[in-house]
Amino acid sequence: MEIRPFRRSDADRLATLAATFARAETDFVLNPLWETEAELFAEFERHAIAPEEHLLVAEDEIGGPLGVVGFLRYSGENTAALIAPIVEREERGRGVGGRLLRAAFELGERLGIGLVTAALGSRNRSGHSLLTAHGFRPVRQHVFMQCDQPTNVPPTAGITLDFAGEEDISGMIELFTEAGFAPPSEETMRTELANGQHAWAVAREDGRDVAFVELETHWPQRVWVSYVGVSPTSRERGVGSSLVSWALEQQFASGAEKAMLMLSPANRAALRAYEKVGFDRFRLIDVLEKPLG
Question: 111 Cβ partners below 8 Å, 6+ apart?
Fold first, then answer.
């Protein structure tokens, strides 16, 4: 068996392998979560990095990929998400995952990555054993939720819902801060409003933005709810739920088939709000970290 850099011809088989892992609760890993070859490439395009530089493939005797490992990071950053080792079922138990992981550590050091974060389903015991044996330590949990069809939540009286435009940038940055998120720059928001990989929507009251939602749409058929922020004076009024519902309805009308998100299990108010919109709790995720170098 050889471990080598990713080739574009590997994409279809690796996407099939990733989709197999996503379906089984005892195999579940958050990354990779690709279902198609196009989703694999879209993931790396979104991060502005090359898969050939960030993915390693275990190759069988006839040259086909039987496993993969790697990293996702934004270009130049020294922290990364681990694309956890996934291996064809008939090859498991032969040490392929461990070899891939050790090769990934060497790659990460060459790339200048200092901290790696991995995310596994809490029932993926073999994955936990592999990562903790190689120095990963648990740091937190998330609930991974999915929505197959958004529930229509009527807007609150006096609230209008609309797609965001450049005129909403300053209002959304303020809402980011009020929600406790690190706000993006105005330049970043202008780029994301125009690049087709994000969809932004806002709730307005008396001409003022009181809530926003950011959706990641780099996978058009499976969108991610990335950020939701509601002004403190507009909370507990159903504004966030109605805005998320409306924004998802627009995406589903344009061909989306599923929506996904992650949040802390301790955030019970948000869990209830997303369930109101049509999300179901799909997996409990354990997040682990390991410093490199």
Answer: 53, 54, 71, 80
Question: What is the per-residue pLDDT across 247-291, written as a single tens digit (0 to 9) for each?
Answer: 999 999 999 999 999 999 999 999 999 999 999 999 999 999 999
Asked if residue 154 has a cis previous peptide bond (ω within 30° of 0), the answer is no
Residues 104-159: tens digit of each pLDDT = 999 999 999 999 999 999 999 999 999 999 999 999 999 999 999 999 999 999 99
* Whole-number Å distance between alpha carbons of 178 and 41: 34
Give, in order, the Cα–Cα distances in Å from 242 to each of 99, 156, 247, 271.
48, 7, 9, 15
* Rounded-to-integer distance, Cα 290 and Cα 273, Å: 33
Half-sphere exposure of 218 (CA within 13 A, CB side): 18
Structural domains in the chain, sorted by start: 2-141+286-291 (3.40.630.30), 150-277 (3.40.630.30)
Residue in 153, 26, 136, 158 with CA at minimum distance from that of residue 86: 26
* Distance (Å) of CA 259 to CA 195, 215, 265: 20, 9, 18
Parallel, antiparallel, or unpaired for β 115-121 and 79-87? parallel
What is d(CA 17, CA 173) in angstroms, rounded to the nearest whole number?
Answer: 39
Q: Which pTM does this prediction carry?
A: 0.92
Model confidence at 184, pLDDT cuts 50, 70, 90, reads very high
CB 53 within 8 A of CB 28: no
Q: Could you give the 3-state DSSP secondary structure of residue 153?
A: coil
Tokens of 186: 């105005």
